[in-house]
Every structure is written in structure tokens, then in C-alpha cells.
What we know:
It is built from 13 helices and 22 strands. Helix content is about 30%, strand content about 25%. The protein has a six-stranded parallel beta sheet, with helices on both faces. Strands 14-13-12-15-16-17 form a six-stranded parallel beta sheet, sandwiched between helices. With about 450 residues, the protein is α/β, with parallel strands linked by helices. The protein folds into four domains: about 120 residues, 3-Layer(aba) Sandwich (Rossmann fold); about 130 residues, Rossmann fold; about 90 residues, Regulator of K+ conductance, C-terminal domain (Alpha-Beta Plaits); about 70 residues, Alpha-Beta Plaits, CATH 3.30.70.
Amino acid sequence: MRVMIIGAGATGQSLAVTLCEMMHDVVLLDISQPALEAVESKVDILTYCGEGSSPVMLDEAGIDKTDMLLAVTNRDEVNILACMYAHAAGVATKVARVVNVDYIAPSKWNWKAVGIDLLVSQNEECAHEVQDILRYPGASDVVDMLGGKILSLGIRIEQDSPLLEHSLAELGGELEILSRARFIAVLRDDKLLIPHGDTALRVGDEAYVVTHLADADALLTWALPSRPRITRDIIAGGGGTGATLAKRMELDGHDVVLVEPDAERAEKVADELIRTLVLKGDASKQEILAECGIGPGASFTAATGDDELNIVSCVLAKKMGASWTVAHVGKSEYVPIIRHMKLLDRVVSPYSSMINVIMRFVRGRNVRAATAFQFLSAELLEMDLPGSSKWCGYSLRKLPLPDGAVVALVQRNGEVIIPGGDFVLQGGDRLAIFTELKCVDRVVAMFKK
């Protein structure tokens, strides 16, 4: 597939590398020649220097031969206009990144009518990811599936965890909700393992389990006896991500405090929020955090536009007793360092959540979602099984999935089922398949319409 990417910033670069690894034909267009050269040093792609909203430039880059356009510059109007031109040129799939959430708010506008298949907001997607992290403190990863009915949780196994006492096959008898859950992966010494019934977990393992939304909190509380209990959420930064997160946490009924150093911005955010206490101040200052009520029972999310400030603020908040810390970090090279040094509890990339949404279009029309994990070389794919599929009537035991893939869940007629090996597939089923990255293309090809 020929994919044209407009914008060679962090998002465009990440998409270009990922798509090249998937063996797609990638064309990258940007107004900055140095940015294009930075990408060319990583992957072998065709680049053009010019304005992405120029029809002349798009023609020169071969828009008429393109199958998919991903417009991900930091200028909303450029992205939208590029998609409209691509639609006129006959491009099948068009995705536009937007910063202004007004574009994606419910309205009378039908974006598909002007040729845009997906509008994706980096702030909205990142805030949604952080919201899940704050809902389930203690989890090392949180991924929602099947429209939010199911969660995949990462659980770091500590010395006091009851998960240490049994093989996975025995755990269903220990806790009833575990009979409705499935362990899909184990990260051990930085190596990914697909667990089986006789797998026994060890201290330091990160176990990934899929479970029903209603069971998630109880499962985490049982598996992590020292799990933090959060009574107050403190957010540093009143920009797009911070303000959006505060609105979401308000709707969840949380006690929220937001800190913003710019007086004008703080006043604007205070007018937009209903129950959130907005303070003007620098969240990297100890006295400001003390005024916010930092300490045991408080979560602290640093969502300013400064990576270093976010990290420092989280370290300070942790030192002052915060129970759960989350940093918004744009530089991907920082993430493994932070994780290895255990400076804070969670790191969120402002790009990865948005890229996950975009990847659904790349994977194929029968792929309803494609979600990457933060620390696993794996994805969760939601695949629709049409009635015409040759796999209808097959039991899971006979399904020729590659060794690095497993069917985690099946949704049938609205009911979510954790299937055994004798479960027989039917047309209309939606499968949630956990797969190592090296197996993704084979799994997608198996179920391609």
C-alpha cells in the first residue's frame, strides 16, 4: 500500500518508521528539509519538501497514486485541506490530526462528506489514556477493548502478590473473577512470553491479563495488596491535554486540582471547568505542591509541554508522598530510562495514543482496533469475522494462528466470551487477538476480507 504522510514531526516520523517496518511504500512531505533528512537517516523513503496543503505539491508527490493519506502536521487547517484534496484525487482513506477539539466536538458537520475518514485529536487521545491510568492505579499498563467492555491490565508481580502461589491453571479456583479472565502475556527479563496453564509467575514479572470492566478493580486489588488508593488527582498544566484530562476526571466524580503558571490560561481553564480547583503556580515548586494537597492518597499528573519539567515535577511529587505519578513525555528516548530508573510510576507519550487510532486504518477494514502496548512488542487486534470466512466452524484449537498469537476474547451477539480451545467460531464474531509484532501481518492476512 502506498501511504503519504504530511508532516515530519514526531508523529509523522513515528508513523513513517512503523509503516516502513510493515513494508508499506511511504512518501513523506514537509516544509522542513532538515526534518525530512532526519527521517531519511532512519528509513529508506521518498521525501518531498513543500506545503502539504498545496495541490501542486501533492500532485508532484503522487497523490493520484496514493492509497492512504495521513495528515499529521501541527496545523489543523493544513491537515484538513490536504485530506479534502486527497479525496478529490481519489485517495481511499484520509486521516487528519487536529489540535483544536472544536473540530471533533459533536456537531452538524459530517467530515466524511468532505472526504475525511478520521479526525483524531492528540490531546483527546492522550487524556483518555491518562484517565484510564488514573482509574486503575497500580496497573503498569491499561488498554481498553471491545468498546470499553474489556480491559487489558499490566500487573507487576511483587513479593506480596497472591499470583505467586499458583500456576495460571489453578488461579480460577482462588478467585472467582479469575475464571472470567485470561492471562495473555508475561514480560520476564525484558523477554515476551505467551503463558500456558502450567506457567508460574515470578517476582518482577509483568503479567498482562484481560478481564471484564466490572471485575478490573477487584482483580487489581487482590493481585496487588499494596496497590495505592487515590482520593485526589492533581494535574500540572492547563494546556490541551491537562484541561481535557481535568474535564474527564470531573465527569468521573474525582476531586481534581489543576496547576497552571500562566495567569490568563489559568483563568480561562477555571471558567471552562466546573468542580476543579484551579491554582496559578509552578508545579515544580515544593510550596505549590503542598498547597495542592500532595501526599499519600494523591495522584500527580504532569502534562505541561516541557518533558524535563514534567519528569522533575513527578520526582518531587513522589518525594513528597504522592501515591501515583504520571508524566507526559514526548521524547521517546526518555521512556526506557525513566522506566529502568523507576523515577515515577507511569509515562505517557503524546503520540502513541493517537498513532494507535490511526493504525486501525492501516491494518485493514476488518480490523476494528489495533492497540500497541507501551512496553511490549505486541498489539491487541480486534478482528471482525464475516460469515463468508473460511474459519467459520473452526474451533480455536484448530485455528492455525502463529505461535506468537492467541485469541483472548470473543464478542458474540453483544456478549463477551473468554473462550476455551473447543470454542467454535461463527460469522459475526468479533475476535480480540493478542499478537507479537512479528506476527501481526500474518494474523491480519488470515482474517482479511
